[in-house]
Amino acid sequence: QVQLVESGGGLVQAxxxxxxxxxxxxxxxxxxxxxxxxxxxxxxxxxxxxxxxxGGITRYADSVKGRFTISRDNAKxxxxxxxxxxxxxxxxxxxxxxxxxxxxxxxxxxxGTQVTVSS
Length: 119
Description:
Layout lengths: L1 E6 L2 E4 L4 E9 L5 E8 L6 E6 L6 E3 L7 E6 L4 E6 L8 E9 L7 E2 L3 E6 L1
Parallel strand pairs: 2-11
Antiparallel strand pairs: 1-3, 3-8, 4-5, 4-9, 5-6, 7-8, 9-10, 9-11
């Protein structure tokens, strides 16, 4: 089992930056690839970013490419999402998720942290 807790959300203005953190406990984070997802009101949850277990591979949704950066610190069991040049359409609840090596689906999810970007 892996427990995930997100933090760092808040209310910011368009163009501002935020850094989300995801703290993991339970099994070592180094045995999992990690992802960030988001869900805006009345919308489906969508993929934001992914990082492999050792940080060697990262992927981003087209909507955040060039503005968001995912990173991880396995020694601290932490995953981060640096969000720059925020836009009102980035407003959502952001979730981190963990997927065991070889697994197809993300198995563990956090409770989410709210990000609100005002215009």
